[in-house]
Design a protein that fits this description.
Amino acid/polyamine transporter I; mainly alpha; 426 residues
Length: 426
């Protein structure tokens, strides 16, 4: 029999799973698999470190929304117009390539599962997926987004863990390290890859803003205002799940591809076909549906949440330029701006898909590196907002969490500066 506490938490449950759906995508399927395939488990420690140090900045999204009834963008507005302008520049500078990357990877996997070949098939599926995602949001808005993602997250979690269990006996556990070797840090190509890996591990900090917006949308849908503790528990479930799945994909890459001598193709279609082929050759043809389901649902969840996240953030951003956000406001975002942004995002991302088809890996690296280099700024903004005067005193992070947050900001900044030094020379 459900208790009142359980019923309350079920009403709060959702935004953390949306966060997981957005996070577990290119960072896991592409970058974590590449890490395992190229380095075995040597970069697993780096993956863990990225998840640990990024936690505070991500957790401030649901904490702020639950405590104030407004989004992180309202917190940015209270910091000053400069904070909104900075966020707008960062968003407009990255959103098209991010949407294009996640959609084309999803389409490439779908084409591989269907046995379709050629760039035309990937382009057609990219357009189809974009339209399907837009239709889901048009028909059901947040409620359908929430339901679809809960189902998809459950599917890809079960299928990915099952696939990993099959591969674990093949993993070379002798390659595991807490920190990458000094040789990797002295090699520019390896540093570039490690930065790309950390850039979206577990995800870009943009999602902390989306999470705060989804928290408010969930509140409006259920008519229940989750407490800060409930919002953080919902987030922690999603966050720990993404960390587990990051390990799974590193292990999958290490177990199947490490020491195989196989190199990933640059094209989206070639990458998808090779990943699925390697798994089925190693585990048997019977495993293709399992691997395919895991890969496709992982990427579909990211495509759907990203195509909602950017327009939702932009629509709220426009409203914040026009005035303050009111707690528990019936319509916290400008719906016209939301749909215009969604259409522009969809058309813009489809427009650059042609460039992605032949050089997907390079452009994935570019997108993740851009996110990595902007991470310190967004983490710093979230840090300022969570300590602002509008935050109720009892819900502000304690001294230990404040220190933890500063450690994460320093980690992101130091790694970014090191990358710039290696990339362009001291």
């Amino acid at each position: 029999m459900e208790t009142t506490t359980q019923r309350s938490f079920l009403k709060a449950l959702g935004p953390g799973l949306l966060w997981a759906g957005a996070a577990v995508g290119v960072s896991h399927l592409v970058q974590s698999t590449r890490a395992g395939a190229s380095f075995g488990l040597e970069l697993l420690g780096l993956v863990i470190i990225a998840n640990v140090f990024k936690y505070p900045a991500f957790s401030f999204g649901p904490r702020y929304a639950a405590a104030t009834g407004t989004s992180l963008l309202e917190g940015y507005r209270r910091q000053g117009l400069w904070a909104l302008v900075l966020y707008a520049i960062l968003t407009l500078g990255t959103m098209f390539i991010i949407q294009a990357v996640v959609t084309v990877v999803t389409a490439a996997i779908g084409a591989a599962l269907l046995g379709w070949s050629g760039s035309a098939a990937v382009v057609q599926l990219t357009i189809f997926l974009t339209v399907i995602c837009a239709a889901i949001l048009f028909v059901g808005d947040y409620s359908w987004l929430d339901r679809v993602i809960k189902l998809v997250v459950a599917l890809f979690t079960v299928s990915t863990v099952a696939a990993t269990a099959l591969v674990l006996p093949r993993v070379d556990w002798g390659t595991i390290r807490l920190l990458p070797s000094a040789e990797l840090f002295s090699d520019p190509a390896s540093v570039l890859f490690m930065v790309a890996l950390v850039g979206w591990m577990p995800s870009a900090f943009d999602i902390s803003i989306w999470h705060s917006l989804w928290t408010l949308a969930r509140r409006q849908e259920t008519k229940y205002a989750a407490t800060v503790d409930e919002a953080l528990l919902d987030f922690n479930i999603g966050y720990l799940g993404t960390a587990l799945l990051a390990f799974c994909f590193v292990a999958l890459g290490a177990g199947i591809m490490y020491h195989s001598g196989t190199r990933f193709p640059e094209s989206a279609a070639g990458f998808a076909n090779q990943v699925i082929a390697l798994y089925t050759e190693t585990l048997g043809a019977w495993s293709k549906p399992l691997i395919g389901l895991s890969a496709f649902t992982v990427m579909f969840s990211t495509t759907l949440t990203v195509i909602d996240g950017f327009p939702r953030a932009l629509a709220t951003l426009v409203s914040r330029f026009n005035g303050p956000e009111l707690p528990d406001r019936v319509s916290p975002i400008n719906r016209s701006v939301y749909w215009i942004s969604l259409v522009v995002l969809g058309l813009g991302s489809i427009g650059i898909v042609g460039f992605l088809l032949g050089s997907m890996v390079a452009l994935v690296d570019l997108a993740t590196v851009l996110s990595f280099l902007t991470a310190p700024l967004l983490a710093w903004l979230n840090h300022r907002v969570i300590l602002a005067k509008e935050m109720p005193e009892e819900h502000r992070p304690r001294l230990a969490m404040v220190a933890y947050s500063w450690t994460g900001i320093i980690f992101s900044t130091a790694f970014a500066l090191y990358f710039l030094r290696v990339r362009w020379g001291a």
